[in-house]
Structure formats: structure tokens, C-alpha cells
Amino acid sequence: MPTMIPNATIFVTTSVLLGLVAVAFLVGTLRLPPQARRYGYATVLACGAISVKYALMSAEVWTISTTGTDESIVRFVGYTVAWGAISYVLGSVADAGRLKTAGVFVCSLTTLWGTFASWVLSGTAETAVSLIVLLALIGLVYLLFGALSRTVVTTSDHRELLYTKLKFLVLLAWAGLLVLGVVSAQNLGLLGGFVGLVTGSYVDLILFVGFGGLVLRNATALEETAASTVLVSFLDDPEADGTATGVEQDVDAST
User: Fold this and answer.
1) What is the DSSP letter of 217?
2) What residue ranges are annotated as transmembrane (predicted)?
3) Boundaries of every domain in the chain
């Protein structure tokens, strides 16, 4: 009977692959116009965070016992950093303003950490957390396909096209991650630990390689975004022509 590949080997392999991709994204970022590089750096951060996450998981750093198996908290910390970077790019490209962008990030984190909590809790608490996760996912879909989709159409064709591609990639990734969470050993137990790890690694590769590739291949959209959008004051240039802060955009939208 063939020997199953150790979990650590899967983690290390995925970490190395994503690390190499992060380096490639850094090279691609440095080829962007200076004012647009901050969005490229976000792809490097996202990919690098997941690479580090897998490296630490291979060393079994910060694990906790859940229903069915041990789970690494580092995994969710890495996702938190990565989804922060993704939310920043989505909000910037869509010209969504700080409040809506924060909403995307909060819904993502609620879905993420709620899934983790559902693996640890049981009974009524697990049911309540699962309901919260469902509501957060609904909120995320509303923001991506409702609120942000309405703001991006007021920008440019290049930005709208990039945002549309990104939102479908994000939706596809979340669908894959949630399905894995439901059928995992911690919940329905339909997937063994090995199959779950391989499938999860594959989804991560698709999401973060796709995210970086889409962003870096759309330099025109990034330049237009950098020229007109301030989302995070210490990252974005507040003196760019035609700039309005995210808070100002939200106030204007409500008047």
C-alpha cells in the first residue's frame, strides 16, 4: 500500500510555491508606475502572508484541538492579513470609500473566524456561530455585487473590468473555502484530512496567484485608481488631483 504524503510536505511545497510567486509579484510590482505600486505591494503581502502561514503550519506552530483534527490558528492569522490586502485593493479599485471597504474586510473576517469557531464550539453555540457566518457571507456578497458594483461604474471602464474579474475570483474562492469547511473532518467529515489539505492548498493557489496576476496585468486601472482615490491616508497620496477621501465619498453618497 503506498505511503501517504506527510502533511508537512504539502505545507512546505505550497509555502515554497507561494513564496516564489510572491517574489515574482514583487518583480512585477517594481515594473509598475511608482504611484500604482502600492496595489502591487498588496498582492505581494497577500501571497507572502499565505506562504508564511504554510511554513508555520508545517512546523505545527500554534495549534488547537478541534472536532476531528488539530487546527493551526496561524492559518487564520495568515488569511486575516491576506484578506486585508485583498479588501484594500477591491475598495480602492471600486472607489468604494473607507466604510464600504471596511465592511468587506469585516464580513470576510467574520466568515473566516466564524468558521474556525464553529469547529471549536458545539451545540447551540455552534449553531449560532454558523448563522453569523451565513449572515456575514450574505453581507459580503451584497457588498461585492451591490454597493461596490454601484460605485465602480462611476469610475472608468478599466477599473470596472478589473473589479468585475476580482469580485468573481473572490466569490469563487469563498465558495470553495466554505464548501471545504462544511465537508471537512471538523464538520460533516466527508473529506479526510489529507484530501482536505490538498484541496485547500489548491484553492489558495488559485485565489492568490489569480489575484496578483489580475492586479499586475491591469496597470492602466491601477494608475487611474492611484490618481483619484485615497483609501488609506498613509498609503495613498492625498495630494493627487481630483482626490476625495473615503470618508468624504461616504458622506457625499449619503447626502
Assistant:
1) T
2) 6-27, 39-56, 76-94, 101-121, 127-148, 168-188, 194-216
3) 7-240
Instruction: State the cell numbers at 8.
Output: 508537512
Closest CA to 105 of 60, 72, 144: 144
Is 7-240 a CATH 1.20.1070.10 domain? Answer: yes
Nearest-10 crossing angle of helices 7-30, 37-58: 160
Amino acid letter, residue 13? T
For the record, the C-alpha cell of 99 comes out as: 466604510
pLDDT, mean of residues 234-249:
47
Q: Which three cell numbers stand for residue 84?
A: 486585508
Distance CA(98)–CA(62), nearest Å, equals 32
Residues linked to residue 154 through DSSP beta bridges, in sequence order: none
Contact 197, 189 (CB under 8 A): no
Amino acid at 122: S
CA torsion angle 111 61 20 91 (round to 10) = 30
Position 185, amino acid: A
pTM: 0.85
How far is residue 24's CA from residue 119's CA, in Å, rounded to a whole number? 35
Q: Give the count of alpha carbons within 13 A of 127, CB side only.
A: 2
